[in-house]
Each structure stands twice: as C-alpha cells, then as structure tokens.
Amino acid sequence: MSVEANIRRVTAVDIRARKGGEPIVSLTSYHAHTAAIIDPFVDFMLVGDSLGMVMHGMETTIPVTLDMMILQGQAVMRGSKRALVVVDLPFGSYEESPAVAFRSAVRIMKETGCGAVKMEGGRQMAETVRFLVDRGVPVMGHVGLTPQAINTMGGFKVQGRSEASAEAVLADADAIAAAGAFAMVVEGVVEPLARAITERVPIPTIGIGASPACDGQILVLEDMLGLSPRVPKFVKRFGSLAGMIEESVSAYAGAVRDRSFPGEENVYKPKT
Ligand code: KIV
C-alpha cells in the first residue's frame, strides 16, 4: 500500500487551498465522543484553549497548560478520523522565542498526532510562525480579539472599531499570512475589517464574531449546542442541549426514586 493511500485526514494544505471557495466549516472539540459526532460535518476541529473555560470553569484561557492541551488533543484524535485536528498553543508555551514555540509545537504534534497548531498574535509572532513553518509545523494564525492577551487588551473587546485599531489588525493579518500560516482565525472584529482582511490575505480567514465576510466560520461547540450558560452576541444556538440534559437527568432521578429503573431489560440474569 502506498504512503498516500494511508492518508485519510484533511490536511493544512487542503484547508489552505480552500481560499475563496466553499466556506470552511469548523468547531472546537475537546473530547473523543463529540469529536466522533462532529467529524463528518467539519473540515477541521480545533482543540481550543477555550477548554479551560468550557471544561474547567476557568474565567480566562490564561491558566491553561500545554499538558492540558495535549491530553484533550489525544482524546480528539482518538475520536475523529477524517477532519484536520488543530491544537492551540496555550499562553506561555510559545511567546518567549521561536525555539520555545517549536519545542511546544513538536510536543503537541508528536504526543497527539494532530495536523497543525494554532497560535495567537500578529506582527510580534510573525518570526515565530515562519520559524515553525520552515521546520515542518503547519501554523494557523489568530488575529483580532486574542483572548490570551485579555490582560493587555483590557477585556474581551471587539477590535477594529477605530481606524487605528483596524490598521493594526490588518498589519497583523498581513504579517501572519506573509510568515507562512496556512489559515487564520479572525476573532471579534467589525464586519468591514473582516472583509478587508479576507480580501487582502491569500490564505483562508476563519471567522468567530467576525461576520459572514470570512472564508469560513468556527464556533465553540458547547456554545452552539446550547450547553454554555452564557454566550456572546455572535453565537447562534443551533441546539438546546442544556434543556435536554436537564430533562434526561430529571427523568433518571425520578426513575431511580420510584424504582422503575433499572427495569427487567437492564438486569443481568444467571445462566439457566
Ligand atoms: O480556543 C478557542 O476556542 C479558540 C476559538 C475561539 C477560535 O481559539
């Protein structure tokens, strides 16, 4: 069997080639079962550092560690078989130098088997993106509202409302594209800026809170499923999982209390 015949997953190169074509569909994914469910529907899934907030109830993504990302990356790789899996480089694992970033990215790729990493930041990270890409690590960029910079940004603030802010994000997007990223997340920016970035950079833009002007969209899975208690304006709830869980758990609790569960069909019998 040829080497090519074994490659079944979407690759970073495939995603790069989708610029300007059919919109790219993506969601976050943190665990094996949901990865298996969403796998047929998405082009890539992101093991985002938002897992700190969604899975662990943290207030920001700042405390998330490389080990946490690797553990959930492994779970998502086990659950999925077709979509590209991209794993976030968490805060503190890459900013210090290109060499530190390379070591973190290599750990992620070797220990999870994922196909790419994502890194927040603009012009200041361009040299690092180039360093990684030149050494075989596909990098997805992330510009606009970058949650790991929440403490310097002063909160989760929409970017590009002023001309100066829009110019800065455009320059970031240019730098990340020129450095060799295969795609970039554009988060929390006003529509005209999302459109300007998408028209200008030669790689796909993946929007979150960045209007339909992007080449694709990403949402946090738990947000769009209706599981997260609070969601930002840009999220549409496509499901109501919290309600379904409540109903199911309430039915279970009632069945245990009135002894209708376990029923005959759930009980092991001795061999006769
Ligand atoms: O961590 C994450 O979920 C992300 C998305 C918001 C793009 O980076």
TrEMBL record:
> What's the encoding gene here?
panB
Q: What is this protein called?
A: 3-methyl-2-oxobutanoate hydroxymethyltransferase
Subcellular location field: Cytoplasm
What this chain does, per the entry, is described as: Catalyzes the reversible reaction in which hydroxymethyl group from 5,10-methylenetetrahydrofolate is transferred onto alpha-ketoisovalerate to form ketopantoate.
UniProt organism field: Kaistia geumhonensis
Provide the alphabetized UniProt keywords.
Answer: Cytoplasm, Magnesium, Metal-binding, Pantothenate biosynthesis, Transferase
Residues annotated as the enzyme's active site: E187
Chief subcellular site?
Answer: cytoplasm
Enzyme Commission (EC) number? 2.1.2.11
Q: Which GO terms describe its molecular function?
A: 3-methyl-2-oxobutanoate hydroxymethyltransferase activity
One Pfam family this sequence matches: Pantoate_transf
Q: Reaction catalysed by this chain?
A: (6R)-5,10-methylene-5,6,7,8-tetrahydrofolate + 3-methyl-2-oxobutanoate + H2O = 2-dehydropantoate + (6S)-5,6,7,8-tetrahydrofolate
